[in-house]
């Protein structure tokens, strides 16, 4: 009998992280002209997952912290640190992360169906 659905929980958390990161990126883009606005990002999923494993916690339900984005010396004269090019790159990366999470989730469900003898 299947006792653990860790892969399903993990992919669900990965998809949730990607969705939350996309919201932070959208907020950054919306504030790209706001004086003194500092770009934000989420703590990388790998770091959150690693910390949860070290504590022995399940990654499901973990809150992802928003951190100030490290942009180097790209602050504009009005103090805004949002680079639209960087945000577009992060958005594409986040979309790929979300697509990967959904693909792994879908494949995991297919394997479970195959294991119980359901036709795919």
Automatic annotation (TrEMBL):
Domain of life: Bacteria
Subcellular location: Bacterial flagellum basal body
Entry keywords, A to Z: Cell projection, Cilium, Flagellum
Species of the source: Litorimonas taeanensis
InterPro entries: Flag_bb_rod_N
Pfam families per UniProt: Flg_bb_rod
Ranges for domain Flagellar basal body rod protein N-terminal: 16-38
Recorded GO CC terms: bacterial-type flagellum basal body
Protein name: Flagellar basal-body rod protein FlgB
